[in-house]
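Q: Structure tokens for this one, please.
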Amino acid sequence: MESGSLIEHDTGQDAREIALVDPAGFEAWRDALPARARAAVEAAQFKGAAGTRVILPGSEAESWSAAFGAPAALGPWDLAGAVKALPAGRYRIAGREPGAAALGWILAHYTFNRYLSDPKPVEPRALLVPKSVDIAALRRLADAQVLVRDLVNTPAEDMGPEALEAAVRDVARHHGAEVKVTVGDDLLAENFPTIHAVGRAAGPGREPRLIDMGWGRKGDPKLTLIGKGVCFDSGGLDIKTAGNMLLMKKDMGGAAHALALAGLVMGAKLRVRLRVLIPAVENAIDGGAFRPGDIIRTRKGLSVEIGNTDAEGRLVLCDALALAGEDSPEMILDFATLTGAARVALGPDLPALFANDDSLAEGLLEGAETTADPVWRMPLWKPYAEMLKSDVADINNNASGGFAGAITAALYLEKFVDPKTPWAHLDTFAWTPTAKPGRPKGGEALGLRAFWAYIEKRYGNHRAE
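A: Here is the predicted structure, written as tokens:
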């Protein structure tokens, strides 16, 4: 999807008009129409319901316009349905600004057709917006959302640790960032034992690695992003069922979010010293796979007993979190498709937010509210840390009892974060299970816009020259 031709500044170009109508104002709007248009509305039984449309005839055959059902306050997805409901062409919203809905207009053109022999992309519908709209920023945001979708939708055969590294290098090249990668047994030499343990069974060409991208100038505030990059999760020796394994190509969705957010930071040239850490592994099975009952000494020095090899995401993240803290960043944000428990609690659309700093959490929740990209704060309930106790190691990677799985996973991660460093963890699904306007079934960025709004507000007044 090329976002460049989908949004244009309105300089008086020829375009079809779209009247936005909601049920509350429908009758007044209808009664003000010319007789021919009113008859078309009656014939189509259009009443302004959200997502419905009607074509309105003009005085001449080619002078038609359209009406589309939408609420008075437009959210990101309220115009997305119009893209497929209207013919290809150029459109302007009559008497209103599209606002946040311009993003959904762009993303409604998205298709993932890489593997189709005869792809049928959506024909472009261009939306005209006022000159006050920052089209470049809007396109960057759409492109970030598309990057997450593309990376998550790509099957594991073509999105292993090496391919994920290549995706990071592509973004780095575009923005002039530096990339360092530690691969295979070098992880042991560089003291990343849990990343190595989880990924060592994947075999040649899919070796585990830690991807470390840096950008910005020394002396600027240090912002570190971390993303879980489990490119496929079989569950390891605690193997998943076939049904639970089916979507595990998306288990690198946290890495996709971190990389997309990094692209937004660099694209906006924020004055930060950015670091992105992505532990990229495949949790596979062979004779060298790590085992239930193994005890691994983490980078921080804490020993962890493996209670379940399918609780691997927190293992790769804990070494990355420990490394991040050694650099004393101003803030650490991590993203992970970490627990099924978060989905049980909040469903697929609502990521679980954990934070050790109330001010940071409030800022992220404000970002979620302003962007209509919801997240829900969950507690780091300290008494539940008892569930992570081990008789033979400092901590167990699998909580006993089967309760509060999202909370205990976050509590595990918190043990590897300096309490003085503001830290937030987003347990996101990274997937849309049922298609909605502008959001096809498949990979999705959930929480990305919320986090970006917070970061841009915090650092946006300090942009690089």
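A few notes: The longest helix spans residues 135-153. The CA atoms of residues 10 and 128 lie 5 Å apart.
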